[in-house]
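User: Structure tokens for this complex, please. No commentary.
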Amino acid sequence: MGSVVGKPRRRLVRKLSGHVARILVVLLAGGFLGATLVRLAPGYGTNPEELDSRLSAASIQALRQARGANEGLASFYAHYLERLVRGGLGESQTLNEPVRQLLAERFPETLQSVGLGLALGWMAGLALAMAAVMSRTGIAGVAAGLLASILLCVPAAVLALLFVIVQAPGRLVIGLIVFPNIFHYARNLLARAAAMPHVLTARAKGLGNARVLLRHILPVAAPQLLALAGVSVSMAFAAAIPVEVLCDLPGIGQLAWKAAMGRDLPLLVNLTMIVTLITLVANTVADLVAQPRQAGEA
Amino acid sequence: MKLPAISATLLLMGLMSGPLVRAQRGSQLRFSLASDPKTFNPLLVDDDASEAIRYLTGGVLVRLNRETQQLEPDLATSWRVSRAGNSITFTLRRNLRFSDGTPFTAQDVAYTIQRLMDPVLHSPTGDSFRSGPGNVTARIIGKNQITIVFPRPIVGLAKLFDQVGILSAHSPHKEMAVLGPYYVAEYKPGSYLLLERNPNYWKRDGAGNQLPYIESIRISIEENRDIEMLRLMRGEIDFINSLDPDLYDRLARQAPKMAYDAGVSLDSEQMWFNEVPAAPIPAYKKAWFTSTRFRRAVSESINRADLVRVVFRGHAQPAVSWISPANKFWFDAGLHPHPFDRKDALRLLAEDGFHLQNGVLRDRGGHAVEFSVITNGGNMERVHMAAMIQQDLAGIGIRLNVVTLDFPSLIDRITRSFNYEACLLGLVNDGLDPNAQMNVWLSSADNHQWDPDEKTPATAWEAQIDRLMRAQAATLDVKKRKQEVDEVQQIVWREEPFIYLVYKDALAGVSTRLRNVHPVALRPQVYWNIDQLWIAGGRAEGRGWN
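Assistant:
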């Protein structure tokens, strides 16, 4: 009996370990790639203050050394990993604050923005997709499709600027960025599920719309929708950068922008790794939740 | 008979000071900075944002009045520079305290000087005081008197102390304990700073009220100039210290009472050619760029009046020298901008063997004259100027390619790789004394942009500039210094290592609620008299954004 219960558990542990290992490898590779791009970007290690005519040659040299202009990529990354193992994330070169402190201050703001944006985008996207699929007239589908297409064409920065002008809460912009993607994918998935023979049979038997949707369409589309959830998280984080910059929301998106503009290597590498981690974890969770359902349905 | 007169005067003073005192309660000034301050240490200030915080919080021994351009007593009631010019004695105000209550004494000044001149600190302000090898000593004469002795004479010595924020030698709060009108109470990097009124600030107004009038200052970090303007119009911020000409014009149309043009500033916009011998550019181009005739011809082909009219909408002046007319004493008024004269430009080019062929200018070797100019893409004025210069140069058969880069990439090219042909950039000038630009004009200096770190002067005129700049730095005779600096200005006008284009006006936008505002050309334009400003009607805490 024990071996019968132990086998699936062992399989689950093995599966989880595989996912964790994959996340770690991708994380390190992402961080290294990010560091490489920043380190090789033109202008790395420069400082506008070098042009100050008051500075002596020794002070200019000191400025260059302080910005790590003479530090090689391998040396930077070795130092970074060494610090990381000891729990340190280094210090921002542009804001002169510990990266750990900056992240702690700003992460709640971004989590709030992204959380609200995802909730809004998903609720609106899913609700309108369901309405579009279930509606007999098709008007709801056309109207929602038109709205989603318009929003898909407008860049996040333009939407954010519009919200600044009309003094609307900037956080809602993330929802409007996520919404059209959720709507299009969800509508396609639900429409495909709605066209399956068992749904037609259920309709023919006279089942109500709500029952058909909840019992026969959504369960079929659920695994793919869950996979979309993982993608939507990275989408929301990507949108957070222009939104936070333009709407003056002090989150990590704004921090990432400042770090990129200032070639702030320690800050950028940490932010790259954090966003990579969030995306990977979201995708893995979606994957893990979706797979047993698929297996069960099979 | 005298008593009623005195009573009436006192009553009048009371009535006049009443609104000001009331204005203090809960009043908050709000404005934006484009970036975070890089430091709160007044000795390490090297960027605009840190400079703003130093001005608002730092106590200095003497203060340069930005309006009159004259020195005024601040923490020091008087000062005396020795005849040899290598020492200065300050008599300090008595019974002053830092913002945290620590007493202010001559020991604090000695400590500040010791830190300032510490070679390990690499203080930009300290570098201004380095006149030669040797140690700087601070001799405390009494609790309120101190003499600072430098190894060599320093020209304009007293004025340099306008930049030295005094540190406390004993406060546990270190550089956060200040003697200026405000202290930093809160800071959220990348977001905002909150400055509170220094309860121990020494200055009082004529009626005996303690200054400053405004209780706190909230400074938001806002990179986007359009959003900053939007917030000014909505009343969310009280002023913009430095407006772009198009935003100024928009403000002047919509709210004329809020728009201020304080006249020509100290800042110039200029263009220069890469004359670095080791630069990775073809030899024939180096030959063009090192030719005075070529540079003069390019200069005469640029219509500066059009740049002023179109790019700066009239809020600028054609430039002529490295010193702006805003610098009343040092500007050489005898100089005039090079005229826009294509005919003369072609004559100069012909003398160097250039010739026009089917509308294309070619050099002796038959190479078509074509070069690129780099500028920072974030500055639309410069991008527009480059586009106009492109059109102007096309008029004499030169093809100019405009390359916009972000600022770090541009710095990389002009200071490290030297992989550029010409550069269009501005020079931000804070100091009035020409000695502050030694590191630009000495041929051996790092900021000698067209050819940094020359082992020996590459040309006779650069050797002459070296001699004159060193001579003006070695004499305390102001008249002689003026002659030497004028001569340098004339050489630069003639040889044009920098092709000066325009001097920008100091443009500001100020809310009508902010009172006693007199924007000036010198930084910080709007709030140079911060302790005298007040907000009509005050304002409740917590209103607005952030």
